[in-house]
Design brief:
The protein has 173 residues and is mainly beta. It is built from three helices and eleven strands. It has a single domain, classed as Sandwich (Immunoglobulin-like), CATH 2.60.40.2970.
Length: 173
């Protein structure tokens, strides 16, 4: 499991050009995450609602296919009560299909104050292996290189990762 985490982190560093310290908000784009509740049995599902919100003064364009995984755009970071990263038991592996990049309908303009969102349901036991207190956040980075997309104001991979707010939850037996 540690090897998987190291490989994922290495890929994340390579993918980001070395800049992996996410910012809470870019001044233009914000990631917001909400959960359906704050206490879960280990065998329960957690439902996450995640939004990309334009908090800037100008329109921005985002890739509308909100896929999970390093190559997809969204990633989940879970930390224990001591702030240590908890290695997920299942890694997201969303993929970006070349045909999606070629279709300009997959790019969404977010006007000031507007958002684009997605709901994600996953097993709590896929995130953590034991009862305890945890914090979860979501990071986002556009998976489409600016050179591949002929759209103005694209929030591309040359922008920093954007980190969501933290949500706290407790896992019980």
């Amino acid at each position: 499991m540690e090897m998987c985490l190291l490989l994922a982190w290495g890929f994340l560093c390579a993918f980001s050009g070395g800049d992996v310290d996410p910012v809470e908000t870019s001044g233009e784009l914000q990631v917001i995450v909400e959960a359906n509740k704050s206490m879960y049995p280990l065998e329960d599902d957690i439902v996450l609602n995640v939004k990309l919100k334009n908090v800037g003064s100008e329109d921005i364009v985002v890739f509308g296919r909100l896929v999970w995984g390093v190559s997809g755009g969204f990633g989940i970071i879970t930390r224990d009560a001591y702030g240590e990263v908890v290695a997920a038991r299942v890694l997201d592996s969303g993929r970006l299909l070349p045909s999606w990049v070629e279709d300009e309908r997959n790019f969404v303009t977010l006007h000031r104050g507007h958002f684009l969102g997605s709901t994600r349901r996953l097993k709590v036991s896929d995130l953590v292996g034991s009862p305890g207190r945890y914090r979860l956040s979501v990071i986002y980075r556009c998976p489409v290189p600016s050179s591949y997309a002929d759209v103005p104001n694209l929030w591309g991979p040359d922008q920093p990762f954007v980190k969501s707010n933290d949500i706290e939850f407790m896992v019980v037996e």
